[in-house]
């Protein structure tokens, strides 16, 4: 696997192995929302990594970042997991990053983040930097997400995510006053797409989504992730607070539209 932003505008892709072999790569499929891409090369006796369990990672666990920073050749840097579940960074549509202080520099994108046992736990994706180099704040996509994307692309050629057609917002005192909200938790719907799945089920602006399929929703990021995980076409219950009344809306999610390509 690689990052979508690394391969999306490439005319030709070449993969270099540590044993000196090189091969042309074919893009099997991409998922811009998670910034992942699946590549395929035709070579024998390819080395493999065991997929680890990113959900069991804890802050302080040792990790190694592998890549080709600045084009100097394959490089390994070490560090620890600094944080888990980083989101709302404005990097990807779906964000659940592993944060690490292992040095990740330009050229590391798409490289492996492995644990001390050599198991793959993440795909290096981005850094926070004021200088262009590593400042000890790097982000990797968890292997749990990468595995889901890989399996979906190999099986169907694309990643199918749920979509209901609403504009969500966090509940603030100003929003609560504007919509006359009684609920103090959940995510308020400020807009509903006409003829979208949510509109057809009777959802209205001002409704507060408090749970999906019985699982609580606390913020917009959580709502986006839970809705995306729904299978398009499968009826799902949404618990909604409407001016103090609890409603159970049955919504059949559609398929999330792919983001438009940027011109250039």
What descriptors fit this protein?
264 residues; Pdz3 Domain; 2 domains; 6-stranded antiparallel barrel; 6-stranded antiparallel sheet; 5 helices; 19 strands; 36% strand
* CATH level-1 class of the largest domain: Mainly Beta
Strand order of the largest sheet: 6-7-8-11-10-9
Class by SSE composition: alpha+beta
Number of helices: 5
> How many domains in all?
2
Overall form:
elongated
Low-confidence stretches: none
**How many E-type strands?**
19
Strand content: 35-45%
**Whole-number mean pLDDT:** 90
Distance between the termini: 25 Å
Task: Give an overview of the whole structure.
- The protein is an alpha+beta fold and 264 residues long.
- The chain is 14% helix and 36% strand.
- It is built from five helices and 19 strands.
- The strands form five sheets. It has a six-stranded antiparallel β-barrel with strand order 6-7-8-11-10-9. Strands 13, 14, 15, 16, 17 and 18 form a six-stranded antiparallel sheet that branches.
- The chain is elongated and about 65 Å long.
- It starts with a strand and ends in a 9-residue tail after the last strand.
At a glance:
It contains five helices and 19 strands. The chain is α+β, with helices and mostly antiparallel strands.
